[in-house]
Amino acid sequence: MKTLFLLAAMAASTNLLSAAGPDRKPNIVLIVADDLGWGDIGYHGSQAKTPNIDRVSSEGLRFDRFYVQPICTPTRATLMTGRYPWRTGMASGVILNHLHYGLPLDETTLAQTLKKAGYTTDIVGKWHLGHETPAYLPTERGFDYHYGLYTAIDHFTHMWQGGLDWHRNRKAVREEGYASDLIGDDCVRIIKEHDFSKSPLFLYNPMFAVHAFNQAPEKYTAAYADEKNEERRGLLGLCAAMDFQFGRIIDALKEVGQLDNTFVFFFSDNGGNLHAAANNGPLRDGKGTYYEGGLRVPAFAYWPGKIESGKTTEALAYAADLYPTFAALAGAPLPAKPLDGVDLAPVLFKNATESGRKEILFLLEDSERDRRGAMIEWPWKLIRTAKPEALWTFELFNIATDPSEKNEVSKDNPEIVQRLSARIDEMKKDAPPAFWKPGDNKPPKGWKSSPIVGPDQE
């Protein structure tokens, strides 16, 4: 069955590439929101107003079952490699300013693959896959250009933990402006200045919105003046900024006559952060957890004339699937290392109701090499955690009939628990030690400022 899906995917992608013409590969625009909650996007009935996203997604294909990792760096590692993050030691924790590691250098990134296929490759926004040495930076990992941040920032000062984290092509830059506005400005500039007759464009826009720290100027919060919770009002302002800049990107593509030759994909890197006033309703919990509110995110694809308008798919999809999907659209060969993603072309272009994906493993490594994690084998999800005495605690949910995960059914289905737990153990054998170690969330003693800006950068 999987072979049939792969053949269908190859045929769908090849047909689209041929239809575009031998010298007209589609542009690819990938927009990734940061910490966007399931219940903080307009078309999910949200308090948040996102008219641009609502309109464009209604003219494309919305994914109702698109999954990611529960936190930032692991999802981005998955996206850039097409592989589970536990295969690269990147499934645990995020790369904070004081940490030294990055995405392993022997991994072939999505940008490198598209660059080999003739694309101009630009990233505007947040990287979060390593910053301490130049080898980890995006311009050394297949991107021609980078503007934005490496880890996290104050949205106005672009500072964090005593250091500046705002860069253009490896050089720190000090400039005034709200981060979302500056990032949006640069995306629009790139689209308007690019010579599409010479190369197709891969524009990766990992927004910093709607990530904490719930900062937004009055122009974005004005519509929510009646919201009494200041933190929530700030988050809603971030949602407005996100939506506005998304709309500007679509408008810029239309202005330069490239909208009909551009594949646009949007999703969030993880679920909303409940500690920062996010709303994931009706999904359970949020960022950092293995419940649906942490893993299942808003996502949609848009390509006028190529993707049928007004559809929502329940096909199971995962962030790793974008790598082979984009590579096929670009006519690019896949890297030597096997991918964990599947080409979504049948779902995107042929109205297939299934993607060919039947399982997703969410695995947390740590120094003890334990086997905590979660496993989706549709329609089941097993969450496995460890008590201090190293006894397993299991939670089993039928997420097809119980998306809010209110009914835990492990005791009624011991054979399913055993099978999925064994599958976690089987896949765990391929996981190298994690880079993240217990205690990495705190800077070492005596550490006072970010190492991101050094004497050679200012």
Strand and helix map with partners:
Blueprint: H1 2-20, E1 27-33, H2 51-58, E2 61-63, E3 66-67, H3 72-81, H4 110-116, E4 120-126, E5 145-149, E6 159-160, E7 163-164, E8 167-168, E9 171-172, H5 179-193, E10 201-206, H6 218-221, H7 230-255, E11 262-268, H8 292-295, E12 299-302, E13 311-313, E14 317-318, H9 322-330, H10 345-349, E15 359-363, E16 373-377, E17 380-386, E18 392-398, H11 414-428
Parallel strand pairs: 1-10, 1-11, 2-13, 3-14, 4-5, 4-10
Antiparallel strand pairs: 2-12, 5-8, 6-7, 8-9, 11-12, 15-16, 16-17, 17-18
Helix pairs in contact: 1-9, 5-7
Q: Which structural class do the helices and strands define?
A: alpha/beta
Give the topology string: H per helix, E per strand. HEHEEHHEEEEEEHEHHEHEEEHHEEEEH
The number of domains: 2
What's the pLDDT, averaged over the residues? Answer: 91
> Distance N terminus to C terminus?
55 Å
Beta content: 15-25%
CATH topology of the largest domain: Alkaline Phosphatase, subunit A
Rg calc: 21 Å
CATH architecture group name of the largest domain = 3-Layer(aba) Sandwich
* Quaternary structure of the protein: single chain
The total beta strand count reads 18
Strand order of the largest sheet: 9-8-5-4-10-1-11-12-2-13
State the helical fraction. 25-40%
Shape annotation: globular
